[in-house]
Each structure stands twice: as structure tokens, then as C-alpha cells.
Amino acid sequence: MSRFDSSISLSGLFGGNHRKPTIILLLAPFLLTTFKYYGSTSFFLETLGPLLPQLEDPHFYAALYTFFASLLLMGVIPAFVVKFVFKESLGEYGVQIGDARFGWQAFVILAPIMMIASWPSSNMSDFLAEYPLHPGAGSSPQQFAFHAFTYLFFYVGWEFFFRGFMQFGLRKSLGDWNAILVQTLASCLLHIGKPGGEIFGSIIAGIVWGIVAFRSRSLLYVLLIHWLLGVSLDFLIVYF
């Protein structure tokens, strides 16, 4: 058998050290495409909403649907694969406190920068058309608080998938920098359809947050930074 024939055999794809990166890189397009097409607010409003005419505020439920679709497709399913297919600890994928001193220092520095950076976006027409995912989030302080809380589930799924499942999962096979760049590539592509500034910003954020995740050995700090970025943008849009 030639080297080429051997390299494209199933044993070459799933055997030995190739097994984990193969599973991760096969699941990534499948799960992300499923989320993009069937986990969006537009899918709920156009396909599921009409089946539920009793809903008083379809946009409210559409936002919840997207938040929990992210949690399921990008959080729960990959976590299941880590535990029962790879038979590894979630702590190895950043689900731990890690280096708390570095993590909180990074949070204190980066969170205000990200929140301030969201100010110009809050006045741009393309961002105003996109956010908040629940347009009625600003109808009352209680409604916004609920929106902010449930939004966290979206980011839990997002961060576990990109900075956890992909980045930590590909680290041994690709090396630190390539693992960061691959998850940045994937997360950037999932932003297609969002405002242009957000797409380009996701490249910088993907690299910076990837470094913080590796350095802190935890997803906690980048999760909170990312969540605060999203919540602050929504807050500025609905209240200013």
C-alpha cells in the first residue's frame, strides 16, 4: 500500500492519536451548521413560531430557543463526547477554576476594554438591527435582568465549544498556537451574517481569549468577559 493510500484509510483517520482530533474536526462542522440553520432566532420565528400561535411574544421565546440551542449543541453534546467518548475530565477542557490569580487579572483588564469597545457599536444601524436578540429585553429592568441571565447559557455553550472542546481538545495534536487559530477560524465563520465589525472583532477576540484560556487553564474568565460584552452591548442599545 502506498503512503497516500495508507494516509486516507479509516485506520489513519480514527487510529491512535488521530482519533480525538478527527472526532473534534468532524463534529465541528456538523454541530455548528446545525446551530447556524436550526438554532437561530429566525428559524424559530419562521418555522416553529407559526406552530405555536398561543405565544404572546414569539421574539422572547425565539431568544430563549437560541440560547438553549447553543447550550445543547455547543455545550452539552461536546461535553458528553469528552466524558463518554474520550473518557476525559472536563477540567482538562477548561471547566475548572485554574489559575485564578491570572484569570481575574485578565478579567479586570479585558472586561472594561470590551465593554467600552461596545459603545460605538450600540449606535450602528447593523448592530441595532441585530441586537438584542429579544427586542423587548428593555421593556423593564426585570425583563432585562432575565434576558441577561438566560443569555449566559448561550455563552456557556459557545465558550465550551470553541475555547474548550476545540482549543483544548486540539492542543496536543496541533500545538498551542494552531489550536487557538483553528478555533478562531471556526468561531469567525459562525459569525458570518452578523455585522461586519463583529466578524472582524471575533478574530481578535478569538486569539486574545484563546491565550487567556490556555494561560489560566480555565474557561471561566473568558466566559464572563464574553458574556459581559454581549450584555453591555444590549444594555447600551435599549437604554441609551
Notes on the protein architecture:
Helix content is 76%, strand content 0%. The chain has 240 residues and is mainly α. It has one domain (3-239). Helix 6 (100-121) packs antiparallel against helix 10 (196-216). The longest helix is centred in the middle third of the chain and has 34 residues, at 141-174. The radius of gyration is 19 Å and the shape is globular. The chain starts with a helix and ends with a helix. The mean pLDDT is 94.
What is the gist of this entry?
The chain is mostly helical and 240 residues long.
Write the layout of secondary structure elements.
Layout: H1 3-7, H2 10-14, H3 19-38, H4 41-48, H5 58-84, H6 100-121, H7 125-130, H8 141-174, H9 176-190, H10 196-216, H11 220-239
